[in-house]
UniProtKB/TrEMBL annotation:
Family from the record: Belongs to the ABC transporter superfamily.
Protein known as: Branched-chain amino acid transport system ATP-binding protein
GO biological processes: L-amino acid transport
CDD domains: ABC_TM1139_LivF_branched
Residue ranges the record marks as coiled coil: none
Length: 238
C-alpha cells in the first residue's frame, strides 16, 4: 500500500450561510485503504463529504486528490478525477429502471466502458441483474442501496465515499451491506466509510476518524480507539 495519500484534507472549513460546520478538518485516505469516519448526527460528516466532492464550496483549507488540488473544483471535475460519493439516503431515481439508474452513473466518467462496467456491477450484485427493468422506487431499501453503490461503481471510482450505507436497513440487511463493503475492499478499492454503525465499521476499517462538532477528535487504528474507555464512552456510545 502506498504511503502517499490518495485523498488529503488539510484545515478544511465550511458550512451553510453564516453557520460554520467544519472547523479545520485534517484527514487522509491512502490508496487501497478503508477509512471509517464516525460520529453522531450533526457532527459534520455529511457536510465534509459534500465539500470534498465539490457540492458545497470550502471556506478555507485544501482538498487534494492524488496530488491534484481539488479545492474549489466543480463537482463534475471531482467525479472525472475518480472521487465518487454514494450519498446518504441513496438518492436513486425512483421513476427510472435499474438499468437506467446504472447508466447515469457513467454519464461523466467511463462512459465508453459502460457495458463492461454494468457486467461488473451485476457480478457484484446479482440481484440487480434480476431486476434490470424494474423501477428503482419499487425495490426494497437494501436493493436500493445496492443500486446506489452499483451506480457509483459505474464511474470506475478510485475512491468511493459511502455515506451512511446501512441507514434504515434491517439488521440482516446491515450484515449483508457490510459484507458487500468487505467485497469492495478486497478488490483494492479505496473506501471512506461514513457511518453511525460503529461496531461493523471498525471491524473492516484500516484506520478510523471520529468527528465531533465539526472537528476531528480522534484518528488512528480501530484497536486504539476501542482500547480507550474515554473515547468509547464520549464519542461512540460503547
Amino acid at each position: 500500500m502506498s504511503t502517499a495519500p490518495l485523498l488529503e484534507i488539510i484545515g478544511l472549513r465550511g458550512g451553510y450561510g453564516r453557520v460554520e460546520v467544519l472547523r479545520g478538518v485534517d484527514l487522509q485516505v491512502l490508496p487501497g485503504e478503508t477509512v471509517a469516519l464516525l460520529g453522531s448526527n450533526g457532527a459534520g460528516k455529511s457536510t465534509l463529504n459534500n465539500v470534498v466532492c465539490g457540492i458545497y464550496k470550502a471556506w478555507a483549507g485544501k482538498v487534494a486528490f492524488d496530488g491534484a488540488d481539488l479545492s474549489g473544483a466543480h463537482y463534475t471535475d471531482v467525479v472525472k478525477a475518480g472521487l465518487i460519493q454514494v450519498p446518504e439516503g441513496r438518492k436513486i431515481f425512483p421513476n427510472l429502471s435499474v438499468m437506467e439508474n446504472l447508466a447515469l452513473g457513467s454519464f461523466t466518467r467511463a462512459r465508453e466502458r459502460r457495458a463492461e462496467n454494468i457486467d461488473k456491477v451485476f457480478a457484484t450484485f446479482p440481484r440487480l441483474k434480476e431486476r434490470t427493468l424494474q423501477l428503482a422506487g419499487t425495490m426494497s431499501g437494501g436493493e436500493q442501496q445496492m443500486l446506489a453503490i452499483g451506480r457509483g461503481m459505474m464511474a470506475e471510482p478510485r475512491l468511493l465515499i459511502l455515506d451512511e450505507p446501512s441507514l434504515g436497513l434491517s439488521p440482516l440487511l446491515v450484515e449483508e451491506m457490510f459484507g458487500l463493503i468487505r467485497q469492495l475492499r478486497s478488490t483494492g478499492l479505496a473506501v471512506m466509510l461514513v457511518e453511525q454503525n460503529v461496531g461493523q465499521s471498525l471491524e473492516i476499517a484500516d484506520r478510523a476518524y471520529v468527528m465531533e462538532n465539526g472537528g476531528i477528535r480522534f484518528s488512528g487504528a480501530p484497536a486504539d480507539l476501542l482500547r480507550s474507555d474515554d473515547l468509547r464512552r464520549a464519542y461512540l456510545g460503547l
